[in-house]
Write a structure and sequence with these properties.
21% of the residues lie in helices and 27% in strands. By secondary structure, the protein is of the alpha/beta class. It has 4 domains: 113 residues, no CATH class; 127 residues, Urease, subunit C, domain 1 (Roll), CATH 2.30.40.10; 75 residues, no CATH class; 171 residues, TIM Barrel.
Length: 588
């Protein structure tokens, strides 16, 4: 009896007679074993004797067919089985075996031909094309993070925010992320030239009061939460970082909200677009913490009432007094004879840092009476308020604030958006400045921070500030109140190269940031921005056309739904900025 042995691999072969028979096969390059049931669904006594099996694979590698006498072998034969074993002699295999009745037999197989690989008729799928990974992963991200460069800005009008004031037709050299030289006719062969002719160069804007780049803002379950840290939930991919770079902002002070008498620890950041959460932190800056007074703390506007203490302004004062008394007692215990048995308290650790002038307070505030009360509590317990923010009645208590040593960070002209600001006036910043306070203009709003230059300009109209004085309110003044004026806030040799090149006078409503530089790295370039906008428009159109095609093809459709961004800000300001956002219900 002759069968064809179709060898596919070292452990896979088919035996072919009238039918393809299931078989069991193994071949190690020398020894071969074959087992198969001779007839599918029929029992037949095989003929004994010599089986001529001609192998088609030629000693097997590559597979092939062997023809000869004998029975076929299968991977899992069922019923009576012929079992063969033998050796390979190149193109001939031979050996002995037993038939289905147990009779001895001999067999041989001779190589016939090599198997021809079948052509795959199925069309191969093209590998999936992945889009470019950008940093951050959105339309304005970087394909590759920008590098620090040596830059030479030539022939600009330089607003220094220093005693030198404005310098016409002046060059500024940036090397290794620092301001290396300021003067005329500067040259450096290693520097990339930027033409500043007809343009204005200033220090980067510093926003003393911001809530961008954070996943949450208020831990409002209790009135003292000094243990929580904004640094633990930074969001470096927040598109507002890029948007504010486009408005000339280079540093932002990210505050905890104002739901608490004593809130959480703040985080000063540099707007390094595309960097991770640790890399955006302003390293080496003094740590701050957020306090608050007034309606937000006593939950005046809460729709479900106030479920916690305090519920009045006098209660707010007593929460502060109680907290610092506990901190003083805790510090004594930690230094006492039984210090090892005192449980560490993260909440009180932060307050002890304030007592020891290692952490500094910025305090949400409005009404003159509670501002005065807050400073009296501070005097009693031996600490001070570094900054009063909002401070819309600051003009009434500016002399007391100056004696206390406080700074003022305020709005330009916000007023009457709730009861406790009904006495706010647009002249507030100018009046506090004339008393001798260090005054800054802040945003407390992601959209407003994009035009803080214009907010500062309002003090020229309301109060008669000079342009230089107005500009300092968003540069060197906030840098001073944040204790980083030795590094940023003005154009001075040795400081960080955080600067903005403007198209017009930076206080003008027509001024645009052409380039915003942080640490000598251009993080915003208006020409690149225009290219990205065109690219995003093309991609949007491509997706729309793809959806139109799917619709025509009968694919299921759904009504479009917007993807809303949560914006952390002061909900009680009730101003409209036209952005597609959802205000967080967490207060300020």
């Amino acid at each position: 009896m002759t069968y064809i042995l179709d060898v596919k691999s070292s452990n896979d072969a088919s035996v072919i007679g009238r039918d393809t028979l299931t078989s069991k096969f193994s071949f190690d390059g020398r020894m071969v074993k074959i087992g198969f049931s001779p007839v599918a669904n029929r029992r037949r006594r095989p003929t004994g004797g010599s089986d001529s099996v001609r192998p088609s694979g030629g000693g097997f590698p590559g597979g092939g067919r062997f023809g000869g006498g004998g029975n076929t072998l299968a991977a899992a034969p069922s019923g009576p089985t012929i079992r063969l074993s033998g050796v390979s002699n190149g193109d001939t295999w031979q050996g002995v075996g037993v038939d289905t009745l147990g009779n001895q037999l001999t067999w041989s197989a001779t190589f016939v031909k090599a198997n021809i690989a079948k052509v795959d008729s199925v069309k191969k799928k093209e590998p999936l094309k992945l889009g470019t990974v950008t940093y951050p992963f959105n339309g304005y991200g970087w394909d590759e993070m920008p590098k620090q460069e040596n830059l030479l800005i030539k022939n600009a009008t330089v607003w220094t925010s220093e005693k030198e004031g404005r310098l016409e037709n002046t060059d500024v050299l940036i090397k290794n992320g620092k301001i290396s030289a300021v003067g005329k006719n500067l040259n450096d062969a290693t520097a990339k030239l930027i033409d500043g002719t007809g343009k204005y160069l200033t220090a980067g804007i510093i926003d003393e009061h911001s809530h961008i780049a954070a996943s949450s803002i208020n831990e409002g379950a209790q009135s003292v939460t000094s243990e929580v840290r904004i640094a633990d939930n930074l969001d470096p991919d927040d598109i507002n970082i890029y948007r504010q770079l486009s408005g000339g902002v280079t540093s932002s002070h990210i505050l905890h909200g104002s739901a608490n008498t004593i809130g959480g620890q703040t985080q000063l950041i540099k707007l390094r677009w595309g960097a991770n959460d640790d890399e955006i932190k302003f390293k080496g800056a003094d740590p701050f913490i957020k306090f608050a007074l007034g309606e937000n703390v006593k939950r005046t506007t809460a729709t479900n009432g106030n479920p916690r203490f305090p519920d009045t302004r006098m209660g707010v004062e007593e929460v502060t007094a109680d907290a610092f008394q506990r901190a003083i007692d805790y510090q004594k215990a930690m230094k006492g004879a039984n210090a090892k048995s005192v449980r560490r308290d993260l909440e009180l650790d932060a307050l002890v840092e304030i007592l020891n002038k290692k952490r500094f307070i910025t305090c949400h505030s409005y009404v003159q009476s509670e501002i005065t009360a807050a400073m009296r509590v501070a005097d009693k317990y031996g600490f001070s308020y570094n900054t009063f923010t909002h401070i819309l009645e600051g003009y009434k208590v500016a002399d007391k604030m100056k004696a206390h040593g406080a700074n003022a960070s305020t709005f330009s002209d916000w007023w009457y958006y709730k009861m406790e600001v009904q006495d706010a006036i647009a002249y507030n910043a100018a009046l506090m400045t004339k008393v001798g306070l260090n005054v800054a203009i802040n945003s407390d709003d992601a959209e407003m921070a994009r035009r803080l230059n214009q907010e500062a300009a309002k003090t020229v109209k309301y109060g008669g500030m000079t342009e230089d004085e107005a500009w300092k309110m968003v540069t060197i003044n906030p840098a001073t109140m944040l204790h980083v004026n030795d590094r940023v806030g003005s154009i001075k040799v040795g400081k960080d190269a955080d600067m903005v090149l403007w198209s017009d006078n930076p206080l003008s409503i027509y001024a645009k940031s052409l380039k915003t530089i942080v640490d000598g790295i251009v993080y915003f370039d208006r020409d690149r921005d225009l290219q990205l906008r065109a690219k995003i428009a093309n991609e949007r159109n491509r997706l729309i056309q793809k959806m139109v095609g799917e619709k025509r093809g009968g694919s299921p459709m759904a009504a479009p739904t917007p993807s809303m961004q949560i914006m952390h800000t002061c909900n009680d300001h009730s101003h409209q900025h036209g952005l597609l956002i959802v205000d967080a219900d967490e207060g300020e």
